[in-house]
Structure to design on (731 residues):
């Protein structure tokens, strides 16, 4: 059965849940009306390392409305079983209220539960905690590091010695925090041994597995609900300590409990993009062809967990070169555990590699775009596998044309507009094409409408809408005849909603389930003597607007509704699934892009303004161009923040984050955002998945910061090797 028409996929459809969101009807984690709910406020440590010597909670417990004050002094011991079903890094996850140790500033040390939020906040302010403090360590450059992760091919050190052109560069990036609009929040409720939580999470099944492990209960005893997420950027793929706090206190007091992190608590209650020091040595011939690179990388992690991300991959496969040596060390510091944030690892590596490529281009006198062409590999040299698709040359060509790249002056600091120095820069973007096992349930009702369910999340890319489009085409229904549901652990399991894998993974499961159900209905029709399709070849039957008919006889057929009504069926059901192939990989699968930026830099003040930003992306089949544009614009705006604004500042005396608020931690606002444009080269990648998509959400962020940094150099002639690039660096 082939040739099913495609009427929904590829159309810039508005979000199907849009009305709920703009009218306030969409319920986020803290919004659910749970009866008899109490409010919990977490008391955070005020030292960065040490132990708790005493907690005085008498004044707090005496306050009206206070139901409990819990700490390690009176909290029950929790099993905290090992859990491989969640995104916990190697090490021992933070165990709330289980001992007297303080591992980082802001660690939960107590919690107050009260009848109202105001009662809980006031009582929490009265809890007095005494400490035996130690000096915390935050020195990324000098603190002892963990054993390295390494990679090598060829003899990089020897090749660098003989390279005609050599660069020895050190780059630094700052810690970044996610700062989504919706703060992390959890409501927990027990009914006997059954736990229900409404939680802001990017992985419903992961939160379910973690809570089951922490409390030592069966997985089936935990239900997690999360139909809407108000932004995540990678802050929610693991279960954070406040979720355990909510469930623990709810069990202790015998009533539902709500915990909502404050904006300040978000800076140490969830993860962050770790700071990096990245030393890159690069060798090339005099025409700019790369011969060798060495990468020495240090990144911060917590002392209790070893967080690592995919920072090595771009240096292994993005460009052709025979000799590569890499060493990636994490440095245990007195901080909470980092986590993925948009373009994890790849964005940091891209900043370094693409900035270095720009430096090489000026060193050898080759146009930066031409330099990328000269170093294009024919295969993935890290795996010796062919690329499933790699349209990077096309991205570069389209970007050069559409941006007007060839009109730029070659020399830096050559263009001026009054007090503003004008410059342009470009960079390449790359990200892994992730896919993981997923399932989806499809139910076709007797009235001819369908419900599709999967335990995924939607933090903004438009999962509700894109899955509806895939299902509508596969079932042959109009969009308003399909309802896609997500956000409940009772639904079929899915992978984390992050890493740009949801469309490929869940979308493929939706496609499979809907294809199966459509075939089921067609088979019933062609075997039904009372059907106009009786005896027809099922391979020739397609479905349009809910009506089954032979492909070349559209007037001859019947609807789903007519078939099910005649047969007395209330519904048809099917379970769809997707899993990447097992066994050795056959292809290298990545998404690619080319970013072009124009900046203006005030010659006296050093202020940087973005004038234009263009991204050209090879992301496979685009399910919904409007949603893709939303992702691209959001990713590029985030890249502006990484390049010019975002920087977490830590007080070295105690680990306090001094700018843990929206007044001092700067993110891009409308005044910072220029004319942004995204272009998608046509194509699909059916080696990656049955619907031909490649991830987009990470890709659109990855190359932005280096493109801006390179444009700043072109404008000013000053090379800044640190992010963010601030005005004081350019004065």
């Amino acid at each position: 059965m082939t040739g099913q028409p495609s009427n929904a996929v590829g159309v810039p459809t508005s979000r199907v849940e849009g009305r709920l969101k703009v009218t306030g009807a969409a319920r986020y984690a803290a919004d659910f009306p749970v009866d008899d709910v109490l409010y919990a406020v977490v008391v955070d440590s005020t030292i960065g390392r040490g132990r708790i010597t005493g907690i005085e909670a008498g004044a707090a417990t005496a306050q009206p409305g206070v139901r409990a004050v819990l700490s390690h002094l009176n909290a029950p011991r929790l099993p905290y079983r090992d859990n491989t079903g969640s995104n916990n890094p190697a090490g021992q996850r933070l165990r709330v209220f289980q001992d007297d140790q303080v591992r980082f500033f802001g660690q939960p040390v107590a919690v107050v539960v009260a009848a109202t939020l105001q009662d809980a906040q006031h009582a929490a302010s009265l809890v007095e905690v005494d400490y035996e403090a130690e000096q915390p360590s935050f020195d990324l450059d000098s603190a002892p590091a963990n054993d390295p992760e390494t990679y090598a091919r060829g003899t990089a050190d020897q090749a660098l010695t003989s390279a005609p052109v050599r660069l020895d560069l050190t780059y630094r990036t700052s810690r970044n925090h996610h700062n989504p609009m919706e703060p992390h929040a959890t409501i927990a409720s027990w009914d006997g041994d059954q736990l229900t939580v409404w939680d802001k999470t990017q992985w419903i099944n992961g939160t379910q597995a973690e809570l089951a492990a922490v409390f030592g209960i069966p997985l089936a005893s935990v239900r997690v609900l999360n139909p809407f997420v108000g932004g995540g950027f990678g802050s929610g793929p693991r279960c954070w300590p406040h979720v355990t706090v909510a469930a623990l206190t709810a069990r202790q007091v015998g009533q539902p409990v709500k915990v909502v992190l404050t904006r300040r608590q978000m800076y140490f209650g969830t993860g962050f993009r770790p700071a990096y020091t990245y030393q890159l040595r690069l060798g090339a011939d005099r025409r700019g062809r790369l011969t060798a690179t060495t990468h020495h990388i240090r990144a911060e992690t917590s002392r209790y967990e070893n967080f690592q991300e995919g920072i090595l991959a771009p240096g292994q496969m993005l460009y052709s070169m025979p000799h590569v040596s890499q060493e990636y060390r994490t440095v245990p510091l007195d901080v909470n555990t980092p986590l993925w944030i948009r373009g994890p690892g790849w964005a940091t590596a891209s900043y370094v590699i693409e900035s270095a490529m720009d430096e090489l281009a000026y060193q050898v006198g080759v146009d930066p775009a031409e330099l990328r062409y000269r170093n294009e590999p024919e295969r993935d040299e890290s795996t010796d596998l062919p690329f499933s698709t790699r349209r990077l040359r096309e991205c570069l060509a389209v970007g050069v044309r559409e941006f007007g790249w060839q009109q730029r002056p070659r020399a830096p600091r050559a263009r001026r507009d009054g007090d503003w120095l004008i410059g342009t820069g470009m960079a390449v973007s790359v990200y892994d094409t992730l896919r993981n096992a997923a399932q989806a349930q499809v139910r076709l009702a007797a009235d001819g409408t369908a419900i599709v369910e999967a335990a995924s999340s939607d933090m903004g890319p438009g999962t509700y809408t894109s899955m509806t489009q895939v299902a509508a085409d596969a079932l042959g229904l109009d969009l308003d005849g399909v309802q896609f549901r997500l956000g409940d652990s009772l639904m079929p399991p899915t992978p984390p909603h992050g890493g740009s894998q949801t469309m490929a993974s869940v979308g493929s499961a939706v496609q499979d389930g809907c294809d199966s159900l459509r075939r089921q209905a067609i088979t019933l029709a062609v075997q039904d003597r009372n059907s106009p399709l009786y005896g027809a070849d099922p391979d020739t039957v397609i479905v349009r607007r809910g009506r089954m008919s032979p492909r070349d006889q559209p007037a001859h057929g019947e609807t789903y509704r007519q078939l099910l009504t005649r047969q007395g069926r209330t519904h048809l059901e099917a379970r769809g699934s997707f899993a990447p192939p097992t066994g050795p990989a056959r292809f290298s699968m990545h998404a690619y892009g080319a970013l072009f930026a124009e900046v203006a830099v005030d010659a006296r003040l050093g202020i940087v303004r973005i004038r234009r930003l263009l991204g050209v992306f090879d992301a496979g089949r685009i399910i919904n161009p409007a949603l893709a544009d939303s992702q691209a614009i959001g990713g590029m705006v985030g890249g502006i923040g990484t390049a010019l604004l975002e920087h977490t500042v830590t007080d070295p005396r105690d680990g306090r984050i001094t700018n843990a608020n929206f007044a001092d931690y700067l993110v891009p606002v409308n005044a910072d955002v220029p004319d942004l444009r995204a272009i998608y080269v046509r194509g699909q990648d059916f080696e990656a998945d049955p619907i031909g998509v490649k991830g987009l959400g990470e890709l659109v962020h990855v190359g932005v910061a280096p493109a801006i940094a390179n444009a700043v150099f072109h404008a000013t002639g000053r090379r800044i090797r640190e992010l963010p690039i601030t005005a004081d660096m350019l004065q």
About this structure: The first strand starts at residue 38 and ends at 44. Residues 18-26+436-578 form a domain with the Aldehyde Oxidoreductase; domain 4 fold (CATH 3.30.365.10). The chain has a mean pLDDT of 97.
